[in-house]
Amino acid sequence: MVVPILLILLGFALLIKGADFLVEGASNIAKKFHIPEIIIGLTIVSIGTSMPEMFVSLTSSINGYSDMAIGNVIGSNVCNLLLILGLSTVIRPVKFQRETRLIEIPMCLMFTVIFLILCNIGRDITRLDGIILLILFVLFIAYTIFMGLKGEKFDKNGEDTKPSDTSNIKVIKNIVFIILGIIALKFGGDFTVDNSVIIAQKLGLSEQIISLTILAIGTSLPELVTSVTAAIKGNSDIAIGNIIRI
Question: Residue 113: what pLDDT?
Answer without folding.
Answer: 92
